[in-house]
TrEMBL record:
Residues 45-109, 239-319 are annotated as: Disordered. One of its GO terms (molecular function) is Hsp70 protein binding. SMART domains: STI1, TPR. This is STI1 domain-containing protein. GO terms for cellular component: histone deacetylase complex. InterPro entries: Hip_N, STI1/HOP_DP, STI1_HS-bd, TPR_rpt. The lineage of its organism: Eukaryota, Viridiplantae, Streptophyta, Embryophyta, Tracheophyta. Residues 364-403 form the STI1 domain. Residues 54-64, 71-98 have a biased composition (Acidic residues). Residues 287-319 have a biased composition (Gly residues). It holds the Pfam family HipN. It comes from the Eukaryota. It comes from Populus tomentosa (Chinese white poplar).
Length: 414
């Protein structure tokens, strides 16, 4: 084993003895597990982490978020369900008649003059029976008249008026519909259907049909029925509009709460990300700001004189987050021809020949102070990404001396 690396290992062991908390570094988990597999008893400080800022911040964020959601749900629960009040209406109604449908005429029958005459005779008999209060007999005669002349709207409408007198509104509506199918301008058809609907409490439909009947052929009976029907129709319409408005307003409030909840959630996520970014930035004092990208994850365990496998020898409290990126292909021009084939030990794959004393870098006050200067660090990273960029920094009196000294350190003993 190389003597230099062996010396570094010894120094690392001494550092672990003096400060067991070093072993809490995630990058040294493998070493701690190895020691325990050999039966080593490690002190409690080798297991406990002394930094929990990020975890506690996240827990606090999660608690805050969990408190926001229930508040929205509580607001939704407080929204009372809309219960429609009873509507007070005036006017008498009857129970629906559930008799089998009455006999209707056959529209395919050819109606002759003789049939029309016979139909009129049957209707005359019905009117005579009706004047005597014989409603069932009147229905029979009108049914005969319809069979003889099924194309007559007036026959159906007349039978519908008799069913209304018999308080059979459903039968009257069937006859009125038949009359209106034959003649869509049948005033008597609209009148009889409107009156039958009023008997069933279908106030809005009744008002509509009675108004149509009045326009086609106004009479006093239609006007009298409308005076009873219209107030109820208006109350129903106002009632419906009122609750349609209430339901719409309730839906609008619910939609607005949902929009506010989404905005609050988005704002909370933004604040959380912002705090995490600030927290991450605040934990980077000491060491090289921004680090060398891509290399030693977790930084360097604090203050290890002489270095350690996988980290910088020497001691940089706070570590160098990020490390050097996977070797420095091409190296620094003029310092190490061919570059560093593999990078630094432990972080940069392949390792580097042991001809660089890193303690000289870490124990150099001027270099350590320069590592805290963002301008110098930016120049170092620029050169490490592309060694050809070295030329553009040579004219910078602040950066050039540091680059020259760094190249001298990397060159190692001649």
């Amino acid at each position: 084993m190389d003597a230099t690396k062996l010396e570094e290992l010894k120094q690392f062991i001494e550092e672990c003895k003096s400060s067991p908390s070093i072993l809490t570094d995630p990058s040294l988990l493998f070493f701690r597990d190895y020691l325990e597999s050999l039966g080593a008893k490690l002190p409690a400080s080798a297991h406990k982490k002394s930094y929990v800022v990020e975890e506690s911040d996240e827990e606090m964020e999660e608690k805050e978020e969990s408190q926001v959601e229930p508040q929205v749900e509580e607001e939704e629960e407080e929204e009372e369900e809309i219960i429609e009040s009873d509507l007070e209406l005036e006017g008498d109604t009857v129970d629906p008649d559930n008799d089998p449908p009455q006999k209707m005429g056959d529209p395919s029958v050819e109606v002759t003059e003789e049939c029309r005459d016979a139909s009129q005779e049957a209707k005359a008999k019905a009117m005579e029976a009706l004047s005597q209060g014989k409603l069932e007999e009147a229905i029979e005669h009108l049914t005969e008249a319809i069979s003889l002349n099924p194309s007559s709207a007036i026959m159906y409408a007349t039978r519908a008026t008799v069913y209304i007198k018999m308080k059979k509104p459903n039968a009257a509506i069937r006859d009125a519909n038949a009359a209106l199918e034959i003649n869509s301008d049948s005033a008597k058809g609209y009148k009889s259907r409107g009156m039958a609907q009023a008997m069933l409490g279908q106030w809005e439909d009744a008002a509509k049909d009675l108004h149509l009947a009045s326009k086609l052929d106004y009479d006093e009976e239609i006007s009298a029925v409308l005076k009873k029907v219209e107030p109820n129709a208006h109350r129903i319409e106002e009632h419906r509009r009122k609750y349609e408005r209430l339901h719409k307003e309730r839906g609008d409030r619910k939609a607005e709460r949902e929009r506010q909840r989404r905005r609050a959630k988005a704002q909370a996520e933004y604040e959380k990300a912002k705090k995490q970014e600030q927290s991450s930035s605040s934990r980077k004092p000491g060491g090289m700001p921004g680090g060398f990208p891509g290399g030693m994850p977790g930084g360097f365990p604090g203050g290890m004189p002489g270095g350690m496998p996988g980290g910088f020898p020497g001691g940089m409290p706070g570590g160098m987050p990020g490390g050097f990126p996977g070797g420095m292909p091409g190296g620094f021009p003029g310092a190490m021809p061919g570059g560093m084939p593999g990078g630094f030990p432990g972080a940069m794959p392949g390792g580097m020949p042991g001809n660089v004393d890193f303690s000289k870098i870490l124990n150099d006050p001027e270099l350590m102070a320069a590592f805290s200067d963002p301008e110098i660090m930016a120049a170092l990273q620029d050169v490490m990404k592309n060694p050809a960029n070295l030329a553009k920094h040579q004219a910078n009196p602040k950066v050039a001396p540091i680059l020259a000294k760094m190249m001298g350190k990397f060159a190692g003993p001649q």
